[in-house]
Amino acid sequence: MxxxxxxxxxxEEYSLNPATVRTNxxxxxxxxxxxxxIGRSVRFLRTEIEKWEKSLLDDQ
Length: 60
What we know:
Shape: globular
Radius of gyration: 11 Å
Number of helices: 3
Structural class: alpha+beta
Number of strands: 3
Strand content: 15-25%
Distance between the termini: 29 Å
Helix content: 40-55%
Strand order of the largest sheet: 1-3-2
Order of helices and strands: EHHEEH
């Protein structure tokens, strides 16, 4: 299992547009899981994705 997803993989997994995800990383970061930046690249860690999913369920 991969421990981190690139933007395209994250977008595909959640049926999102990759361009929207890229935009939200900088303009609306609270709508996404926390990201790991390595240079100019952005990675979504599985642990942060799980926390994000849990917070979405708790908000309902």
